Amino acid sequence: MKQRNHRLPKERKVPERDKLHGQHFLRDRELILEMIGIAGIRTTDTVVDIGAGAGAITLLLAKKAGKVLAVENDPVLAAALRRRTGELRHITVVEKDFAITRLPQEPFCVVANIPFYMTTAILTRLLDSPAEAFQRAVLIVAHGAAKGFTARRIRSARLLAWRMWFDIKLAKVVPRHRFSPPPSVDAALLHIRRKSSPPVPLQHRARFIALAEYGLRYPDLPIHEALKGIFTPPQLKQLLRAVGANRNDPICRLNERQWGIVFHTMLAHVERHRWPARRK
Ligand SMILES: C[S@@+](CC[C@H](N)C(=O)[O-])C[C@H]1O[C@@H](n2cnc3c(N)ncnc32)[C@H](O)[C@@H]1O
């Protein structure tokens, strides 16, 4: 039996210096304009810049967006940022750890070159509560992390839950030399958008997560093994036909659309007492 695997793709081990600050600054105006373009920022948008540094992204964002919230926890950088943005009343500088920063209540986007060590924590804050105000983002993350979040095989229930309600795409690889100082790995632009028609409606989120946690408790199990506690053999046969998969395919090969079919088939045909409950 393979090891249980409920975790997200591993983040690389980071050197202590990166871990303390994650400070790799962008000097590349073209790349920042490209990020703002991919995010489709308009004058009606509220945009958060997470880890704003001295404002490389903030200042260009301010030309396109209605409001900008620039979050930076390093006091020296935050002071420089305040000096550079002093006249611009639609920019708010928040000198705080992003983990404890209040997010806007109104719909908002994020365009940011984030500290890599916080990647999973940041995505968790943005994507774990899809009922909230976050709409879309273009983030610079480590290339390896971007590959994990967009992988064809979905091995963790949390990543699956994110991808059921948000499209996550790797838009472009960004070589490390485009930062100063360069990080030890290449980076990538991660493009995240709320899905307009998710395969499972938001009201079923908790129930879907229970199914995902159950189904992916051993992500390499064949589908028929992984789901046999929920579906009877005839139900399973019908389900496999509907999702277009083989009974021996590993369950981690199901995509978001196929998981949607598994969920709706469970609601329609399986007795309630067989539906998985959420793990404590
Ligand atoms: C990769 S740099 C990006 C700086 C700037 N946005 C740029 O592109 O040049 C990440 C920034 O995040 C800041 N930072 C690190 N941890 C943070 C945290 N917990 N909360 C807010 N900012 C943080 C660092 O001080 C640094 O300025």
TrEMBL record:
CDD domains: AdoMet_MTases
Residue intervals of the Ribosomal RNA adenine methylase transferase N-terminal domain: 31-196
Alphabetical UniProt keywords: Methyltransferase, RNA-binding, S-adenosyl-L-methionine, Transferase
Gene3D superfamilies associated with the record: Ribosomal RNA adenine dimethylase-like, domain 2, Vaccinia Virus protein VP39
Signal sequence, start to end: none
Molecular-function annotations in GO: methyltransferase activity
SMART domains assigned: rADc (SM00650)
Domain of life: Bacteria
InterPro entries in the record: KsgA/Erm, rRNA_Ade_diMease-like_C, rRNA_Ade_Mease_Trfase_CS, rRNA_Ade_methylase_Trfase_N, SAM-dependent_MTases_sf
Binding locations of S-adenosyl-L-methionine: 24, 26, 51, 72, 97, 113
Pfam families per the UniProt record, alphabetical: RrnaAD (PF00398)
Species for this entry: Paenibacillus cisolokensis
Protein name as it appears in the record: rRNA adenine N-6-methyltransferase
PANTHER family with a match to the protein in the record: DIMETHYLADENOSINE TRANSFERASE, DIMETHYLADENOSINE TRANSFERASE-RELATED
GO process terms (BP): methylation
Lineage per the UniProt record: Bacteria, Bacillati, Bacillota, Bacilli, Bacillales
Family classification: Belongs to the class I-like SAM-binding methyltransferase superfamily. rRNA adenine N(6)-methyltransferase family.
